[in-house]
Design a protein that fits this description.
Radius of gyration: 17 Å
Structural class: alpha/beta
Bound molecules: zinc ion
Helix content: 25-40%
């Protein structure tokens, strides 16, 4: 049973196809290879049927080329396990596309569940802004819980992004955190400590400073639950291929959080 050190693994990275990142799979793996990585996952934002919301994701017509770029990266770096993934919104009407087409017919290695958008009263709200009312936070928490109850996603990306909207910890944030953490425990679903959050926080110093994510109180609360975490860079540029991962691991270790093994994540070991 192989179990590489968590500092030798990243399962969250993007390519130029999502229109807000640069570089392609082989460039990420090339940069990561210099750090002695064992397992590298490419997980660009999934295309959606009908090319919905494609201003920040690839078009469906690019999916095959994306998958091929990952296979080519694997061929170029045979010493590293290169995995084909996608970061997915959990829209109800997309689940069969993920299951039948992405995991089924195309045989991708894994999916990440992410709540960049929150379903609320028939529309989708941006989870990065304005998540301040109890109603919105409950909707965000419910959305993540439903993702964790499905077996589609290997782990949940940045579950604590709701912290970006608030400048102080309060009862509503606490309740949202408990809902998410209880579902992660009940479903054995790892939660991501997202290195991109550390880099965003650095940009948000000074008068716009906010608790951001990783949201300290969320992860302190996590210590009361039997959950595991996964430490990822969320790289949007090849030079960030393994960025902030050591910092995420240190953060988890300081709090006493358990880092998920490859087996717990259900990914192919290097
Ligand atoms: Zn994301
Ligand atoms: Zn991402």
């Amino acid at each position: 049973m192989t179990n590489p050190s968590p500092s030798r693994r990243n399962l969250h990275s993007h390519t130029y196809r999502c229109k807000h990142a640069s570089g392609d799979a082989a460039e990420y793996v090339s940069h990561a290879s210099k750090t002695g990585v064992d397992t590298y996952g490419i997980s660009d934002h999934t295309p959606l049927p009908g090319d919905r919301f494609n201003s920040h994701r690839m078009d469906m017509s690019e999916l095959e080329d994306y998958h091929q770029a990952i296979r080519d990266a694997q061929d170029s770096f045979p010493e590293i396990t290169v995995l084909a993934g996608l970061e997915c919104e959990d829209f109800d009407d997309c689940r069969s596309f993920y299951e039948d087409e992405i995991l089924g017919r195309r045989n991708f290695d894994y999916l990440i569940g992410a709540g960049h958008f929150t379903p609320l009263q028939g529309s989708w709200e941006d989870s990065y802004f304005g998540m301040t009312s109890a109603t919105k936070l409950r909707a965000y928490g419910d959305h993540l819980c439903s993702m964790m109850e499905s077996s589609l996603y290997q782990f949940i990306a940045h579950p604590d992004v709701f912290g970006l909207s608030s400048d102080h910890w309060n009862e509503d944030l606490k309740a949202c955190s408990h809902d998410i953490l209880a579902a992660a425990e009940a479903n054995g679903k790892p939660l991501e400590i997202n290195g991109g959050g550390f880099r965003k926080l650095a940009q948000k110093s000074g008068k716009d400073a906010h608790p951001g994510f990783p949201l300290r109180q969320f992860w302190e609360t996590a210590c009361d639950y039997q959950i595991t975490v996964v430490c990822n860079s969320d790289a949007h540029h090849p030079t960030h291929a393994m960025a902030s991962i050591e910092k995420c691991i240190q953060y988890a270790e300081e709090l006493g959080l358990t880092i998920a093994s490859d087996e717990q994540l259900g990914i192919k070991a290097a």
